[in-house]
Structures are given as structure tokens and as C-alpha cells.
Design goal:
Blueprint (H helix, E strand, L loop, with lengths): L1 H48 L3 H18 L2 H18 L2 H18 L2 H17 L3 H18 L2 H17 L3 H17 L3 H17 L3 H18 L2 H17 L3 H20 L2 H11 L10 H99 L5 H31 L8 E4 H18 L3 E6 L6 E4 L1 H17 L5 E12 L2 E10 L6 H4 L11 H7 L5 H11 L5 E5 L3 E12 L7 H6 L10 E5 L3 H13 L3 E5 L2 H10 L4 E4 L8 H11 L5 E5 L7 H6 L4 E4 L4 H18 L1
Parallel strand pairs: 2-4, 8-9, 8-10, 10-11, 11-12
Antiparallel strand pairs: 1-3, 3-7, 4-5, 5-7, 6-7
Length: about 750
């Protein structure tokens, strides 16, 4: 028995040696093939720049054969990129687009960000030629953002060049020159001669289009010099064409004609003799209908032969091992089959249990969504009474002690409203019912307002807030200010909550700005308690906090970071966390905005312009089933000398409207009997002129169209701000008075 064991060990070691040799040999062979592919692609790119398209095609075919043989997606993508450039030069933009989209798909799959930036840039140039200007701008913007973020400095120059070409194609020569000027120093620093020559020719074209022929002549001279030094025949052809146009602008027609002839001569030499032939050769050797650069039939036989040789060598080695261990495996397989049969039976049982659990979870999720939608409405109605009565009592000159208690009540009501909103927001985010707004706002002021609101909390915990806002960021941005504020309130509030006698930094910096779009980075950093490495993995889940002790010490629901994560995901961003226990935490995220100025209503400013005399003695019917809400609304109206009548439900409201002349109706939605919507529909049958405003605690996002379609003139959500309340009342009454 010991002799047999030694024999098996010796054979095993021998097999390992064979395998090691085979793998080393194969690795060396792969490295050589990779070097060959790189060499072919570099030669192809240089040939394209020099408009030698026939050798370019030959090199691409060789590179593609090797890439397909290795089944290497990175090199297949690189070959697609160069082939897209070739078809762009041949003028076959459709095929060029197919190739570059294939390259982008492979690079996204392999996460090759450096080459992805190049592909985005190439696609931007192709989309520009196809007059797909929005697509071109999107891909060039994305390329610039990645290049900036990853510090791919060499890529920024070509991106700027193509942004200039896009602007030129869109008849924006001044913007084109701006892009060219910003890209030139980068292209110079990396000695990118071809891009530099292209930049100069197109800058000259832009200068000529804004009637600067002398400047265009100087710029074109620089391009011609590079074209002659580097052998770029296409650049020289473009330069002669531009000289012809410049001299024509200067009314020097003989010089214009001479340069036009020189341009035609080079163009004929470059394209007339070989472009059509190369296109036919490419069509014969490349299968473009199936999005593969090379017809696999041309290389399949060679690939199969090489695979057969490798397979034969491995088969010889493996045969020795198989003969040796086959007898030992037989018994093992028999035992494994018995174990597998038992495991399969167990798995089937578990699978059945999982299916049942999944169905139960889905039903529970649906029930949760319905429950939260109902309960938040039911909570908001009494909360309206709390906040409304508190507001009224604070205006009635309470004693200092009473004022202190009322302020505490107000704070509690606001905290409860915040909790309800958090639960509702999370419910809507999980149900994919949240939509982004797109309004203008001042980001610096918005963050400053957040800091003012959180200032007392920070002061109570003896924390210092440090606000660093880059002044180069445009004053007005277009986006969703409410959700930006919500994200910042949660993150900064968390930092204040978990920091004592410390510092909190809020930093906003620009990443990039292209035309009317800007990308910004946000950082919220503190030197508080920090988060353990283990908890960092789950801290963004619902109802999760650092630990049970933290929950008891600091309180809270654990919903804030979950809402932040979901909101940022909605805005095409993601939250990142850097933290060390005992040393603080840093939260980072990026956001994109448009530079825009909106003209939406500012109710605080609008309220200052209200002529309250118009509302004096006006008759308003308040339709509300809740007695406290009736009392609050009546008092607010009567305080401003408005006459008020009340209806407890929709049926009474319809009858009172028939029997009395009201100037306006404030209509609740959910009431016993018929709803506010049904009551409005009945009133509209006999009175189409009276303004009806929905005064409701329902969530408006999903119901706006329904309200307006059923006869409402406007909507005031509860709990409401008095500025918005009186602005909308005033607007409705003025409009009614004007049409009377």
C-alpha cells in the first residue's frame, strides 16, 4: 500500500509539472499576442490620421483576428474604436456608429473607464456629423465628467476639440472658439499633433464665420505647418480649402482659385482612387450586419486548428491522470450521487418555502403601502389642528410662560410632521411614486437656510458649522431644491446629532461645467462618534442606526440615511461614506444641475403685494367635516374681515351653494357622505363661475390632474402656510371680480 501511494504521488507531481509548463507557455503566448494587437492598432490609428486608409484597414483586420482568437473583450472594444474612426473617415457614419456603440457596450461590461472616455469622445464626433446634436452633447459631457473625476488629463483636450466641433456644427462659432482655446493648452502639453492641427483648422473656420479673415489666416498657417511636418494630407487639404475661402472673403479671387485647385488635387489623390475600393474591401472582409468587425468564417478554420493543437496536447497530459484516478473516482461518484439526491430533495423543499415566503412578502409590501398612505392622511388632519391652533394662540399675545409652552407645542407638531413626511417619503420612494421637480433656486442660499434652521441644534451641542461654498458656482441652478434640502438636512442633522463639542464641515465644489450644465460635489464631514466598518455596510438600510446604545442615547427612527440614499438614486447619484469609529464621518455625493433662472411663484413675496381690502366682506363657504379645522379656518378668515359660512359635508355644501351667493368655496376632499370631488362636480352642473379651491391633507403628487379635471380652480395643501393661503384666495377673488 505505501508503494502505491508513492506511485500516485509521483504521477500527481508529474502531471502538475506538465500543467505548469503548459500554462506558462500559454501566458507567454497571450502576452505576445496582446503586444501584436496594440502594435496593429497604433499603426492603424497613425495611418488614419495620415489618410492612408488601405494600410489602416489591413492593420485593423489583423488586430481583430487576434482579439477574436483570444476572445478578449478589452481588445475587441479597442479594435471597434479604431474601426469606427476608419468608417468615419470613409464617410460611412452609420457603420461608424454601429462599431463605436459595440465598443462602448464592451467597455461598460469590463469597466474600462479610460477607454470608455475615448469611445464617448469618438461617438460625440460621429453623432455631430449625423446631426444628432443632443446625443453628441450628452456623450461629450459624460466623457468630460469622467475625465475630470478620474484625472484623465490627456483625454480633456480631444473632448474640448469635439465640443468645439459640435458648437461649430450648431452655428455657434463664438462658443466653438471658447472650447478650442480651453482645449489647446492641454493638447499642447501632451504633444497631440493631429488633434492640434484639427483644432487650428476648425478654429480658423469659426474665425472666418464671424468675419475675422486675418485671424483665420494666422490660425490656418499654424494648422498647415503641422500638416506638412507630420504628413497629414487631410489637414493640408482642409487648409487649402480654408485659404480659398479666406482669399475669396478678401476678394483676392486668383489666390482663392489657386488654393481651391490645390485642395481638389490633394482630395482627388486621397479619395477618388482608393476610398471606394477600400469601402468595398471592408464590406467584403467585415460582417457589419451582425455588429462583428471580422467575418468569423475567415478566421474560424485557423482558430479551430490552433484550438485542436492545444486540445491534443492537454488531452495527452490528462489521459495519464484520468487512467490513474478513474478507479478511485468511481466509488466517490457513487457516494456523491446518493448525497446529491438527498440534497436535491432538500433544495426542492426549500425552494417551495421560498416561493411562499416571496408571495407573502409581496402581499405584506402592498398592505404596507396602502396602510401608510391611509395613516399619513389620518395623521395630517389632527396635526393641522395642532399647528393651526398653535399659530392662532401665538398671535394672541400669550404670557411668557404660555408662549414657552406654545413654542414647545409648535416644535412638537413640526417634529411630528417631519416624522410623518419621512415615513411618507420612504413609502413613495419604495413604491417608485416620487417625481423630481425642475425649478430654479439659489443653491448657496438654500444651504445657508438649512444651516440657519439647524443652527440652534448645533449650538445646543456646542458644535461649530463651517460652510465652504465655491464662489465660481453659478448663482441660479435648475433642479429639485426641496429634495436637495432634504438630503442636506438629513446628513447635516445626523452630523450634529452624533457630534458633541466638535466641528462640522459642509463643502460644495464644482467638478465640471459644460455650456448650461454644471456638475457639483458635496461633502458633509464631522469629527463625531464615527461609524464602525461593520455598520457601514448596513447604515443606509431602513430603521438602521449605529447600535442599540446609539438609538437609546440619541433617539431617531433610522430612516434619514435610507431616504438620502433613495433620493440621490432618484437624482442619478449615489452616497459614499468614509468613517472611522471615534474619529468622525464624511458623506460624499455628486449632483448635476442646469444653469437656469425660473419664474415660479414665491408666495412670501407675493403675499406682500396682496391688497387685503379686496377680500373684506367677501362670503366664503368652508366645507370641512372636522370641527377643529372649521374653527381654525373660520378664525383666520374672520380675522381679515371675511364673512364665513361652514358646511359639515358635501351634501350640505351643494344645497347651501344653490340657496346662497358665495364668492368662493374652500372644499375639503375626504368627508362623510359624498367626497369633495363629487360635491364639486355637482356644483359645477349649476354654477360654473364660483371659484372652488381644494383645502386638503391628501398627497397632491398623484391627484393634481384629477382635481383640475373635476372643476377645482386651485389647491391648497394642509397644513398650509398663511402666505400661500391668502395669495391663492386673493388671486381667485381678483379673477372672479374681473370676469363679473
Amino acid at each position: 500500500m505505501p508503494t502505491q501511494i508513492k506511485y500516485f504521488i509521483a504521477q500527481f507531481l508529474l502531471i502538475c509539472c506538465f500543467f505548469s509548463y503548459a500554462q506558462t507557455s500559454e501566458l507567454s503566448e497571450n502576452n505576445q499576442m496582446n503586444d501584436s494587437i496594440e502594435s496593429y492598432l497604433e499603426n492603424a490609428s497613425q495611418s488614419i490620421n495620415q489618410t492612408r486608409l488601405e494600410p489602416a484597414l489591413s492593420n485593423i483586420i489583423n488586430a481583430k483576428e487576434l482579439a477574436l482568437q483570444q476572445q478578449d473583450k478589452i481588445y475587441i472594444a479597442k479594435t471597434n474604436m479604431v474601426l469606427a474612426k476608419l468608417y468615419r473617415e470613409l464617410g460611412d457614419l452609420k457603420k461608424a456608429e454601429e462599431q463605436i456603440l459595440d465598443a462602448i457596450a464592451f467597455q461598460n461590461e469590463t469597466n474600462d473607464e479610460f477607454m470608455l472616455v475615448s469611445s464617448y469622445t469618438i461617438y460625440g464626433s460621429i453623432a455631430t456629423k449625423l446631426e444628432k446634436y443632443k446625443t453628441a452633447l450628452k456623450f461629450l459631457e459624460d466623457a468630460f465628467i469622467i475625465a475630470k473625476k478620474k484625472d484623465f488629463k490627456s483625454q480633456e483636450g480631444p473632448i474640448k476639440l469635439n465640443l468645439g466641433l459640435l458648437a461649430l456644427a450648431q452655428k455657434k462659432p463664438e462658443l466653438a472658439i471658447k472650447h478650442f482655446n480651453s482645449g489647446l493648452p492641454i493638447i499642447n502639453s501632451f504633444d497631440q499633433h493631429y488633434f492640434k492641427a484639427k483644432l487650428y483648422t476648425n478654429k480658423a473656420r469659426a474665425q472666418l464665420s464671424i468675419n475675422q479673415p486675418d485671424e483665420a489666416m494666422k490660425t490656418n498657417d499654424l494648422a498647415m505647418q503641422i500638416g506638412e511636418d507630420m504628413g497629414y494630407a487631410e489637414i493640408r487639404s482642409e487648409c487649402f480649402e480654408l485659404y480659398s475661402q479666406i482669399y475669396e472673403r478678401k476678394e483676392d479671387y486668383p489666390a482663392s482659385l489657386e488654393n481651391l485647385r490645390a485642395h481638389e488635387k490633394i482630395k482627388d489623390a486621397l479619395f477618388n482612387t482608393n476610398k471606394e475600393i477600400i469601402a468595398q474591401e471592408a464590406g467584403a472582409k467585415l460582417n457589419l450586419n451582425e455588429n462583428n468587425v471580422l467575418i468569423e468564417e475567415l478566421t474560424e478554420e485557423n482558430i479551430q486548428q490552433q484550438r485542436s493543437l492545444k486540445l491534443g496536447r492537454l488531452t495527452t497530459i490528462l489521459s495519464i491522470a484520468l487512467i490513474t484516478i478513474l478507479s478511485l473516482l468511481t466509488l466517490s461518484l457513487y457516494k456523491n450521487n446518493n448525497l446529491r439526491a438527498r440534497a436535491n430533495e432538500l433544495l426542492q423543499n426549500k425552494n417551495t418555502e421560498l416561493i411562499l415566503a416571496k408571495e407573502n412578502a409581496e402581499r405584506a409590501s402592498e398592505a404596507k403601502v396602502q396602510f401608510l398612505s391611509t395613516i399619513t392622511h389620518e395623521l395630517r388632519t389632527p396635526l393641522y389642528a395642532v399647528t393651526g391652533l398653535t399659530h392662532l394662540l401665538l398671535e394672541e399675545s400669550p404670557t411668557p410662560n404660555q408662549k414657552e409652552h406654545l413654542n414647545s407645542l409648535k416644535f412638537s407638531g413640526e417634529y411630528l410632521l417631519s416624522l410623518i413626511n419621512n415615513i411618507l417619503d420612504l413609502n413613495k420612494l419604495e413604491a417608485n411614486k416620487v417625481e423630481l421637480e425642475n425649478t430654479s433656486f439659489n443653491l448657496k442660499k438654500r444651504i445657508n437656510d438649512v444651516l440657519i434652521a439647524l443652527g440652534k441644534s448645533a449650538k445646543d451641542r456646542n458644535n461649530n458649522l463651517h460652510y465652504e461654498f465655491d464662489e465660481s458656482i453659478p448663482a441660479k441652478l435648475k433642479g429639485d431644491p426641496l429634495k436637495v434640502s432634504q438630503v442636506l438636512i438629513n446628513l447635516i442633522g445626523n452630523s450634529i446629532k452624533f457630534t458633541q463639542n466638535g466641528d462640522i464641515w459642509i463643502r460644495v465644489k464644482p467638478i465640471s461645467q459644460i455650456e448650461n450644465k454644471v456638475s457639483l460635489s458635496f461633502e458633509i464631514e464631522d469629527n463625531g462618534v464615527g461609524i464602525s466598518e461593520k455598520k457601514q455596510l448596513s447604515i443606509f438600510e431602513n430603521f438602521t442606526q449605529g447600535s442599540v446604545q446609539i438609538n437609546r442615547k440619541f433617539g431617531g427612527t433610522g430612516l434619514g440615511l435610507s431616504i438620502v440614499k433613495n433620493l440621490l438614486s432618484l437624482m442619478d447619484s449615489e452616497i459614499k461614506l468614509e468613517s472611522e469609529l471615534g474619529k468622525g464621518s464624511k458623506f460624499l455625493f455628486d449632483l448635476k444641475f442646469e444653469i437656469f433662472e425660473d419664474k415660479s411663484t414665491n408666495y412670501t413675496e407675493e403675499a406682500k403685494k396682496i391688497d387685503y381690502s379686496i377680500m373684506i366682506d367677501k362670503r366664503i363657504l368652508v366645507v370641512e367635516d372636522n370641527k377643529i379645522n372649521q374653527l381654525i379656518t373660520r378664525k383666520i378668515l374672520e380675522k381679515n374681515e371675511i364673512k364665513c359660512d361652514v358646511a359639515d359635508n358635501g351634501d350640505i355644501a351643494v344645497n347651501k351653494t344653490k340657496e346662497n351667493a358665495f364668492d368662493l368655496i374652500l372644499m375639503d376632499i375626504h368627508m362623510p357622505g359624498i367626497s369633495g370631488i363629487e360635491a364639486t362636480k355637482q356644483i359645477r352642473k349649476f354654477n360654473k363661475e364660483i371659484p372652488i379651491i381644494a383645502l386638503t391633507a391628501v398627497t397632491l403628487d398623484d391627484n393634481l390632474d384629477e382635481f383640475y379635471d373635476n372643476g377645482f380652480n386651485d389647491i391648497i395643501p394642509k397644513p398650509y402656510k398663511t402666505e400661500e393661503f391668502f395669495t391663492k384666495l386673493h388671486k381667485a377673488l381678483v379673477k372672479k371680480q374681473a370676469t363679473a
